[in-house]
């Protein structure tokens, strides 16, 4: 599929199918995502679940059909289904869970730019995501007033020039890969034109939920970038990565992209030793290294996904015993006003 990449990038001989399993482009799959609860429950033969759900006015149900295909029919506890179902518990107010848990609304000097970490800036390319993860810490974030216009991209460019300590750009969102190649490449060019920028990082869940997003045009562009390209994927459970997904990830790897993964520790989804070891091994088998395991950010509506910190630490000790060091992600927590992700203290919290 990727036939414009330079030889030194060690191209794979394997060819991805021109059309995917459903025969649809990624754009079509994105547009055709399921947003109707009845349809989802019908496909999964779980109509009885309806009574425990609600219809959110904002941040409603959204899940690509390919991701639904990875769910088990008739299993109300399926770990992928749990991540997208809007449950009644979301409406319960729980003390300590707030709309802006990381106080990000106060860390953006220019629309679309977050500067929390000294040498890295984060640019919110878009508010759109292919999937709505019910635990998302940005589900209440005011994206509409945080997507940079052309003028603001120019301001961001100047801001970076005025901050020579910045050497890495993190493209986030929403999901930065939910925008068109044309728009994404336009933005990448702005950052690549700045000699101080050595690395561009893409935080994305799209290649996991719609693998076809790793298309020929995108990979060809990224493979030629002057900057090191790091793709931090977001995968919470081993079942999210099937052979089809693995084929596309392999193409990204062959294009010279560094693949890492971040996961969120989620009650009833991946809070067991078995789930975590399976995830790490699955990621490694497709060329992705586990990077972060996040303690849930205390965002309102997501308290039912949280587990006590001492339980997270107990699980982590088990992971340290069970897995080789390179397959153990860092257990971290994002705290407001901290200029880095805070490693969880394994001794204090034990
Ligand atoms: S893909 Fe990421 S940003 Fe989008 S809803 Fe899920 S966790 Fe949030």
| Fraction of helical residues | 25-40%
CATH-derived architecture: Alpha-Beta Barrel
Tally of individual domains: 1
Measured on Cα atoms, how large is the radius of gyration? Answer: 20 Å
Number of strands: 9
- Helix count from the secondary structure assignment: 11
**Helices and strands, in N-to-C order?**
HHHHEEHEHEHHEHEHEHEE
**What is the beta-strand fraction?**
5-15%
> Globular, elongated, flat, extended or rod-shaped: what is the shape?
globular
The distinct bound ligands, ions and cofactors come out as: iron/sulfur cluster
CATH topology: TIM Barrel
Low-confidence stretches: 1-20
Structural class: alpha/beta
Read across the widest sheet, the strand sequence of neighbours is 1-2-3-4-5-6-7-8-9
| Overall pLDDT confidence | 90
Secondary-structure blueprint:
Layout: H1 26-31, H2 37-43, H3 65-68, H4 79-82, E1 113-117, E2 120-124, H5 150-161, E3 168-172, H6 181-192, E4 199-204, H7 206-209, H8 216-223, E5 228-234, H9 243-254, E6 258-264, H10 273-285, E7 289-294, H11 309-322, E8 330-333, E9 342-343
Parallel strand pairs: 2-3, 3-4, 4-5, 5-6, 6-7, 7-8
Antiparallel strand pairs: 1-2, 8-9
The chain binds iron/sulfur cluster (SF4).
Iron/sulfur cluster is lined by residues 129, 131-133, 136, 138, 173-175, 205, 234.
Fold and architecture overview:
- The chain is an alpha/beta fold.
- It has a single domain (94-343), classed as Alpha-Beta Barrel (TIM Barrel).
- Helices cover 27% and strands 13% of the residues.
- It has helices at 26-31, 37-43, 65-68, 79-82, 150-161, 181-192, 206-209, 216-223, 243-254, 273-285, 309-322; strands at residues 113-117, 120-124, 168-172, 199-204, 228-234, 258-264, 289-294, 330-333, 342-343.
- It has a 9-stranded mixed β-sheet with strand order 1-2-3-4-5-6-7-8-9.
- The longest helix has 14 residues, at 309-322.
- The termini are far apart.
- Iron/sulfur cluster is lined by residues 129, 131-133, 136, 138, 173-175, 205, 234.
- The site of iron/sulfur cluster has 11 residues, from loops.
């Amino acid at each position: 599929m990727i036939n414009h990449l330079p030889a030194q990038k060690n191209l794979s001989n394997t060819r991805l199918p021109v059309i995917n399993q459903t025969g649809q482009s990624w754009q079509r799959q994105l547009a055709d995502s399921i947003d109707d609860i009845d349809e989802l429950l019908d496909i999964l033969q779980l109509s009885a679940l309806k009574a425990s759900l609600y219809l959110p006015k904002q941040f409603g149900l959204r899940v690509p059909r390919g991701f639904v295909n990875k769910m088990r029919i008739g299993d109300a506890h399926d770990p992928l289904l749990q991540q997208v179902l809007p449950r009644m518990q979301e409406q319960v107010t729980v003390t300590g869970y707030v709309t802006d848990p990381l106080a990000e609304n106060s860390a953006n000097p220019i629309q679309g730019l977050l500067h929390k970490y000294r040498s890295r800036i984060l640019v919110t390319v878009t508010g759109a995501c292919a999937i709505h993860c019910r635990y998302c810490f940005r589900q209440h974030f005011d994206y509409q007033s945080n997507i940079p216009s052309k003028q603001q991209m120019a301001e961001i460019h100047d801001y970076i020039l005025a901050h020579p300590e910045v050497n890495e750009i993190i493209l986030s969102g929403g999901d930065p890969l939910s925008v068109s190649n044309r728009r994404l490449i336009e933005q990448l060019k702005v950052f690549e034109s700045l000699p101080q920028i050595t690395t561009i990082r893409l935080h994305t869940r799209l290649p996991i939920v719609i693998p076809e997003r790793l298309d020929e045009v995108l990979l060809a562009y990224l493979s030629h970038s002057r900057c090191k390209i790091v793709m931090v994927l977001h995968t919470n459970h081993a079942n999210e990565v099937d052979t089809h997904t693995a084929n596309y990830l392999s193409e990204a790897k062959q294009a010279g992209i560094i693949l890492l993964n971040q996961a969120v520790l989620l009650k009833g989804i991946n809070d067991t030793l078995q789930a975590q070891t399976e995830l790490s091994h699955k990621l490694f088998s497709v060329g992705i290294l586990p990077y972060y395991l996040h303690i849930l950010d205390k965002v309102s509506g997501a308290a039912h996904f949280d587990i006590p910190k001492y339980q997270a630490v107990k699980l982590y000790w088990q992971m340290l015993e069970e897995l080789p060091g390179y397959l153990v992600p860092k257990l971290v927590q994002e705290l407001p006003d901290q200029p880095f992700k805070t490693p969880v203290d394994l001794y204090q919290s034990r």
